[in-house]
Amino acid sequence: MTKRFYITTPIYYVNGAPHIGHAYSSIAADVMARFKRLDGHEVFFLTGTDEHGQKLEKAARDAGLEPRALADRNAAEFRAMARTINLSNDDFIRTTEDRHKRGCAALWQALDAAGAIELGHYEGWYATRDEAFYGEDELTTGADGVKRSPYGAPVEWVREPSFFFKLSMFQDRLLALYEAHPGFIQPISSRNEVISFVRSGLRDLSISRTSFSWGVPVPGAPDHVMYVWIDALTNYLTALGYPDMTDPRMAFWPADVHLVGKEITRFHAVYWPAMLMAAGLPLPRRIFGNGWWTVEGEKMSKSLDNALPVQPLIDEFGLDPLRFFLLREMPFGNDGDFSRRALISRLNVELANDLGNLAQRILSFIAKNAGGTMPARGVATEADVSLRAIAEALPDRVRGAIDRLAFQEALEEIWKLVRASNAYIDREAPWTLRKSNPTRMVAVLRVLCEALRVIGLLLQPFMPDTMARLLDLLAVAPDARDFASLDRPLTDGAALPAPVGLFPRFIEPTA
Ligand code: ME8
């Protein structure tokens, strides 16, 4: 039976335009989704937009628009970005869709029926920018006298009637969950943070607001709208057809990975499992919080106006090199800095030199000196055996790394084969063998083509278009590109297309 795999990205707020940070989480999820599909899983990959809440209502007012108009405009941009960065998502959910609102109402009713919701008054600090409530002890007061959230957002004191989710009832069960499933929250830094937050005591959570109206109405209390996070988290279920348990997509629940930014791990690792426990639904298997990119050393922010849009980067560097850089530059889960210099240096060293040159050297040599067809296997030398051994061990190593969302490590493993192949070609020197030992030359070229094939297959999730071209150049049939085909041999004598370069070198224009 094929195994199902369900992975999600955060659904992004539509009060602003998409930027490289959003693209990052989405591309990471896409790499995992593509990897799992190639590895024989039936995958559901979900992304979308989070369109309700006070923040959106305020942004719309500031822009002189109706909330719906602003949401439509920016949701269209996020949808366009998903295409631009070549996401293989199976669905794109907008929280303003009826299917979502229906599912939210149903989950609310399930929580209510379980006795997990009660009516009261909310009084406390709220940061609209974070769409989050904070305790006094979590706030800092700046030199300007303004109280701010741990993420720097100004907070205000609010008091209004509100429904509460009895989160405090779940403290022990949540701690037991983290204990029983050490991999539930990753990376470890996020896990520790969440555990200490839950240990310090959970307060019941205000889950409805009456002071604005841009949200999903509370069933039976139309003057309340749901707290945007309750609405947002539910997307992971409503996209599968919840509450219709007979919908075939519901078979994908529970999610295998909710991939999120580290600042929203708490919502996913505390509120969400508690809600699911209350509703009697299975819990997701893993919450992974990715780290944060700064840009040229600065935090991306509206006030600095330095949020990097994706399209200009793609225009200049190409999509696949950008996808590669994002996952190669730092361990997934860590923070990192997006700088032009680092980008250009990675692309030149690892893509243009290491991999691009390797492919070019092999394929153009075959075109010129080996009749432009796939060389046949020869008698293996020790050097051949040891290069093949690296290639044969690679899929398991990469699979292991991808399962841990260790994208950088997966790429490093693949690059070990790239570098070993470069060392091999230098040592075996087919250009010398051409005169001295043409039979051996053919065998060497074949060993190199085999290594390139494995590299091309395993890099497909990261750089789908470019690797499709590489596999075309090796005459690998379209139906021989999944991981079940990893040990299918290349076809002796297959005609190879005229070689083309895969990765250009970038030269920074001088001012
Ligand atoms: O939080 N570096 O939406 P959002 C890395 N709607 N990742 C970044 C980033 C950066 N500089 N900036 C953004 C929300 N991200 C909620 C989510 S989910 C039920 C609701 C990524 O538009 C990262 O994944 O603020 C982060 O969590 C997400 O974008 C925040 O997007």
TrEMBL record:
Q: Which reaction does it catalyse?
A: tRNA(Met) + L-methionine + ATP = L-methionyl-tRNA(Met) + AMP + diphosphate
Q: Which family does it belong to?
A: Belongs to the class-I aminoacyl-tRNA synthetase family. MetG type 2B subfamily.
The EC number(s) attached to this protein equal 6.1.1.10
InterPro entries in the record, alphabetically? Anticodon_Met, Met-tRNA_synth, Met-tRNA_synth_2, Methionyl/Leucyl_tRNA_Synth, MetRS_core, Rossmann-like_a/b/a_fold, tRNAsynth_Ia_anticodon-bd
Q: Name the species this protein comes from.
A: Acidiphilium iwatense
- Where is the short sequence motif 'HIGH' region located? 12-22
> Pfam families under this entry?
Anticodon_3, tRNA-synt_1g
Q: What does this protein do?
A: Is required not only for elongation of protein synthesis but also for the initiation of all mRNA translation through initiator tRNA(fMet) aminoacylation.
Q: Which NCBIfam families match?
A: metG (TIGR00398), PRK12267.1 (NF008900)
Q: How does it assemble?
A: Monomer.
Q: Which UniProt keywords apply?
A: Aminoacyl-tRNA synthetase, ATP-binding, Cytoplasm, Ligase, Nucleotide-binding, Protein biosynthesis
Q: Where can this protein be found?
A: Cytoplasm
Q: Which domain of life is it from?
A: Bacteria
Q: Where is the Methionyl-tRNA synthetase anticodon-binding domain?
A: 375-504
What's the name of the protein?
Answer: Methionine--tRNA ligase
Annotated Methionyl/Leucyl tRNA synthetase domain ranges read 6-362
> What Gene Ontology molecular-function terms does this entry list?
methionine-tRNA ligase activity
User: What HAMAP family does UniProt report for this protein, alphabetically?
Assistant: Met_tRNA_synth_type2
The UniProt entry annotates the motif 'KMSKS' region at: 299-303
**Keyword Ligase applies:** yes
Q: What enzyme category does the UniProt record give?
A: ligase
